[in-house]
Amino acid sequence: MKFDGLIFDFDGVLIESEAVGNRQIAEYLTGIGHPTTPEDSYANFMGLSGQHFIGALEQWIDRPLPEDFHTMRAAEDARALREGVGAVEGAVRFIQGLPFDLPKAIASSSSTEWIKRHLAHIGLEDAFGDHIYSGKEHVTNGKPAPDLYLHAAKAISVDITRCAILEDSPVGATGAVASGGHVIGFVGGSHCGPDHADRLRAIGVHDIAKNFGEVLLLLE
């Protein structure tokens, strides 16, 4: 392979959670009087977590979020953890086909509990070992800062410039590009519209992949 290590975003790259979650956010905001499409949600909130996520939502509606938003999100997260979320097409086969000794990690805005639960659901519970890193838990500054990617690269003992990073969100791609890694903008999730690749190119990703077959070609 061209690279010595791989770093994966999780939501929207390995599992189809971005489509589900952003539809729900759009429906909620529309229901409280702020018309929002799933595309609006993808553009403004995808890839954010913690106070960055809440701040972006409150900026969008120009007021504090109602308390029931947090109740709704907690209930949806609990449901998703209980029932699981399916894999992005081709993701499982791709991960299983990687060389066993190739250093790889997940760098996600989600919690490690969320990531591990869904890796188990799609049959990849052992694929990354302990190399599962959360912007909420492992760094002070999550995406769009580059810190999480740098942390993951250091943890797998690979220079960031020798890592390929798979990212689907503009927020994540911004941090990935800033980290110095080789960024593949992945647009194979069901949430990625016709203009998604152009938005990632504008951020400065090095390549675009529409599916995991194209990812493999870029890595070889």
Q: How much strand?
A: 5-15%
Main beta-sheet strand count, sense and barrel state? 6 strands, parallel
CATH superfamily of the largest domain: HAD superfamily/HAD-like
Q: Can you tell me the CATH class of the largest domain? A: Alpha Beta
The total count of strands amounts to 6
Instruction: Give the CA-based shape.
Output: globular
Give the topology.
Elements: E1 5-8, H1 17-31, H2 38-45, H3 50-61, H4 67-83, H5 91-96, E2 104-108, H6 112-121, E3 132-134, H7 147-155, E4 163-167, H8 170-179, E5 182-186, H9 196-203, E6 207-209, H10 212-219
Parallel strand pairs: 1-2, 1-4, 2-3, 4-5, 5-6
Report on this model:
The chain has ten helices and six strands, in the order βαααααβαβαβαβαβα. The protein folds into two domains: 5-16 and 85-219, 3-Layer(aba) Sandwich (Rossmann fold); 17-83. By secondary structure, it is α/β, with parallel strands linked by helices. α1 crosses α2 (38-45). The model has no long low-confidence stretch (mean pLDDT 94). 47% of the residues lie in helices and 11% in strands.
